[in-house]
């Protein structure tokens, strides 16, 4: 028996050696930069570029930003280092963020705010929020939460927005615009996803613009056109190539689609729901969009003229204008989005740049008859709140999986436009909303 096993073992080894020698060589997928130069990749944009998610900017969200994912793939084709204004490990909570900590007996999510730990002590708050830890070294990810096309041309924005203020030297705050920062960035390749804040701020405020905030309304088209084209001119002035992204229809995100008029009415035994619009109080219909943040206020027992009236269910205590995006305001936003996207596409074509039509992409992944149309390795992706894998707990920004999906779409248009062969990433390897 001993001799048998010895001989058998040698036979197996010999057979293995023979089979190995006969195996055909499997070539690794070819990786190529094509006509692009990723030596200095710079990302231009707002919160979606910065990696904002779950209602905040924090270290983990920054590490999962789509530009950081892209930069990792670009390195495979000779791309250079990519620096982000990361919060330190000691201040990893950044500006604070939302976390899913459980569910009520009725199945509603319990969402808890994790406090910020990157706020500068003994520093007055800016109009846009508390001052955050400074990061004034050169960076490649220039994503600034809250940055609009209109705001990018305004030096004062640095004295208003804490995320932009933290990137500026003290003497530059209020004197240096985002456009100037872009002009100094000198990329060899760039992505530019800017413009949705020019409608989103108005939308998430229920279509209410504040007279005290010049950036709270929908940006006028001449301003958007002039500033956006100036920005693209700055980016390509030294021969850089890049990708511009269009603005998605913001009314399709969970912030506006989770708490619907039919669902609210059904939960209240089909009682009529009343909303306040520019023209007065009326009954809501399915074309009016209730903000996600309004949910807790619906049905609240308010004292109105000595009577207790549930909020939203009587004309005398209708949902306020700021709590609902009525159908007229939805129309304004859709019209502005179309106009802005035409400007973006025209600027890209004029400069021979690649275009990632984010608006068309998000339109294409809307569920059909309640079923997901985007399925990646058996995992469904939809715009549904929490369960859809795409959107984070604020209902506006993406999960790491959502950002990875966006990164892959950028890669696809880069490969097509610039004859490159950049591999995509496994989106399912990234986190969606984490359950407790």
UniProtKB/TrEMBL annotation:
Q: Where is the signal peptide?
A: 1-21
Q: Which Pfam families match?
A: Lipase_GDSL
What InterPro entries is this protein classified in? GDSL, SGNH_hydro_sf
Gene3D superfamilies annotated for this entry? SGNH hydrolase
Entry GO MF terms: hydrolase activity
Q: Which UniProt keywords apply?
A: Hydrolase, Signal
Q: What is this protein called?
A: SGNH/GDSL hydrolase family protein
Organism encoding this protein: Adhaeribacter terrigena
